[in-house]
Fold:
Amino acid sequence: MRSNSHLRRLTGIIFVGLILSLCSAEAGFAAADRSLAALQQEVAEAGRINPPWGGPRNGPSGQRDKRIAVLCEDLRNGGILGVARGIEEAARELRWQVKIYDAGGSPSGRNQAVAAALAATPDGLLLIGTDAAALTKQLRLFEQRKIPVVGWHVAAEAGPLPGTPVAMNVSTDPLAVARVTAAAAVVAAQGRAGVVIFTDSNFAIATAKADAMAAVIRDCPDCSLLEIRDLAISDCAEQMPRATSQLLKAYGPRWTYALAINDIYFDYATPELITAGELADNLRFLSAGDGSSAAFMRIASGIYQVGTVAEPLNMHGWQLVDELNRLLAGQPVSGYIFPVHLVTPENVEFDGGAQYHFDPDNGYRDIYRQIWQH
Structure:
């Protein structure tokens, strides 16, 4: 009797344990489903067509006939080039004289460019794509001469940068950009992405974006973060084909998604993948910026890339001019941060996509003109 009673108790314990285990597993599956549903909603929101204008509608009159220096990290970068063109377009409205200095993507070129810009004694400085922290000493000289500085993609934080020589970092929130990019990979892979992330540790913003993408992938139970590859943007043309080949050999079909902090990585990966043939058939690209023309072409034609979080490059050029105009008028910056916009095969033809760039159809040019002309 004692033996039978002991057996019944043991059987009951095993049964209860099994039930609890099943309940726990079901709860885990439900949590994963809820998490995937949340990512799907986030990705859908970022892919909205014609996102509305949420920026300023009031500000100081245009401060005309100013001389402006524009320091570009590397004009070979399509994002930087697009912003520079937007600055030139907007500056014509205010009769500003714009002088562009190209750092060429190197420390020596950067130092030469900033020295030349300072020697020109401009009324204002626009810093495009360079890590402001690396130039703090030189930028303090502009600050001492009361030359206002506004940047684009110059720090890991978007918006005003109090306590630094740069009054404002015009950018989509880089961490939000990174999260949406990684979320899009998880959603497209139905929660089973094998990911390699490309970044450039020379820039704080790139490191922050890579870390944010990695966090999303690590939080996905059935995803694999295969590697974070640190490869300087300035060395992409030389190193990216070899790196792509190495990664294909190392991970094979486990590598299904390549995420990068900039589209330029994929410019040089694509030929290698085409050569690789079937080995790369399941590989897809997603970029956390900037929405280059080449990226739009790849997305529209279905050549490996399925998404890019595109910056409104031309609009950001206009915003840079407006923020600098506010400082020249003795007023604070607007602090406006444009929301994340994910370009996919479903929306690539809208908001400037037919011209292979993201240019939101929200009337920003006329809005800024009205601000400056009142």
Notes: The CA atoms of residues 285 and 305 lie 4 Å apart.
